Amino acid sequence: MDEIEIHLNVNGLPRSIRALPCSTLLEILRDKLDLTGTKEGCGAGDCGACVVLMDGEAVNACLVLAAQADGSEIITVEGLEKDDQLHPLQHHFAEKWALQCGFCTPGMLMSCYALLMNNPNPSLDDIREAIAGNLCRCGSYAGVIEAVLEAAKMSAETRHD
């Protein structure tokens, strides 16, 4: 099978990658671009460890074929940090202990980031729905919810200043 060329914008940078058509976005991110923050958990779209944003939507990178991602804008957990500063959501995850072993954290952060991009003032139900596809074996869900609420509150205060 011949490799194809795939063009992506990853974390604000244009990238061209050669990969087999059966490669997944997860494989490209980790193996070709060395963006290892995105984790492989189940490989079947059940755990959410590999969630990234593709054209503004949260997707399981293990379920997206490389060819499907061609021409897309991708944001990974590495793309949240700007100028060596954590994104407020990352800060609140740490502050509220929304992480324990950390394996689910990148995917959880990206699901929550997508939520806040589309809904800057989410309800508890909105947050629960946004993270429904993310499995945390350590049970950090309460901390995640608190972190998202705090990030939303901080964002709202910034918008009103």
Q: How would you explain this protein's 3D organization?
A:
The chain contains six helices and five strands; from the N terminus they run ββαββαβαααα. The chain is an alpha+beta fold. It folds into two domains: 4-78, Roll (Ubiquitin-like (UB roll)), CATH 3.10.20; 88-160, DNA polymerase, domain 1. Strands 2-1-5-3-4 form a five-stranded mixed beta sheet, with helices on both faces. A hairpin with a 2-residue loop joins β1 (4-10) and β2. α3 crosses α6 (141-160).
Task: Provide a short characterization of the protein structure.
By secondary structure, the protein is of the alpha+beta class. 38% of the residues lie in helices and 16% in strands.
